[in-house]
Amino acid sequence: MKLRLLRLFQERAGQWVVMEALCHELSSQPRDIAQAAGALQSKGFQIEVSPVSGYRYVVSAEPLWAELLKPHGCRLLGRQIKVVQTASSTNDLARQAASDQNNDGLVIFAEFQTAGRGRQGASWVSPSGMNLLLSVLLFDQQSHLKPHLLTLASGLALAQAVRDVTGLAAKLKWPNDLLIDSRKAGGILVEVCSAPHGAPAVIIGIGLNCNCQQDDLPSTATSLREVASQFVDRHGLGRSILKHLDDWLQICLADRRQEVRQVYLDLSDLLGRSVKLTSQGREYSGRVVDLDPFQGILVQLDHGGVRLFTPAETTLLS
Fold first, then answer.
1. 74 and 100 fall within a common domain
2. How is residue 123 annotated by DSSP?
3. Which of 33, 42, 178, 259 has the most CB within a 10 Å radius?
4. Residue 215 — φ and ψ, nearest 5°?
């Protein structure tokens, strides 16, 4: 009853729903609905009650509930979803889960990480219960799940999910960051680990700043709440990320490169921009003259010449 009631509330977020309508749609008695609503309130969900108007659900910094994060229609991932309160990092938990091949497609969310990390050893700090911190575990049975491919699919999924759920103009900073208003709002870390049963495991770690405030973030970062000026629905975002990721993984594995390239270019603002970057210990500057999400960025260097910079060896500085 609690889950069904919460789903109904979330479908009508911000609207008053009278008891009679709830009883009809859930085929339940007022007493059962009142008890379920009270239980949800005790879990931290913001539900307002009026003797005249009924109930109104308000999106807030509510706790994650595994049942509400499960996407529909996925083929590769999301069959198992776990939510933990605290972890060193969700990638660490996924690495532990790689000992069991039955965990293929497992998704782990954490409310707080004590040692969250990003690309090239950077730390990822997030206040408890405010953002989306998740990892996806996949087994590479056919040796097709290359890290750059997973980073690409994850970036596309993250940007499209944010656009779908919040309406914000999310952009991709090559190769693995999500930008809102030119500031970092999310990132992706793909790791590969061995598994005892033979097939290597690949782990996609995603961090998205959802409901934290600017005081919790460095000046170069932002959150969806800061830009949208309201709390965002972490459950809806989580489901959308997983559904888009499942779709993009299948598209990338089918090698539909032209489709991927066109969407990526639409979501990136790199083409034609002046950039500074590092590769193999050296710093370069120039203008981006072409972008291929599978190969890298082609840069007309300031000191002359044209060079292709690959995602695995390059960090974009500005």
1. yes
2. B
3. 178
4. -60, -20
CATH number at residue 108: 3.30.930.10
Q: Which two tokens stand for residue 289?
A: 């003259």
Can you tell me the distance from the alpha carbon of 95 to that of 28, in angstroms, rounded to the nearest whole number? 43
Count other C-beta atoms under 10 Å from residue 217's C-beta. 19
What residues make up the domain containing 281? 274-316
Is 190 in contact with 130 (CB distance < 8 Å)? no
Label residue 42 exposed, middle or buried (CB < 10 Å: 0-12, 13-18, 19+): exposed
Let me know: does 185 contact 228? Beta carbons within 8 Å: no
Are residues 134 and 35 located together in one domain of the fold?
Answer: no
- Return the closest-CA partner of residue 185 out of 132, 259, 257: 132
Q: Helix, strand, or coil here: 136?
A: strand
pLDDT in tens, 229-242: 999 999 999 999 99
Are residue 254 and residue 221 in the same domain, yes or no? yes
pLDDT per position as a tens digit, 251-297? 988 888 888 888 988 898 788 889 888 888 889 999 999 888 888 88
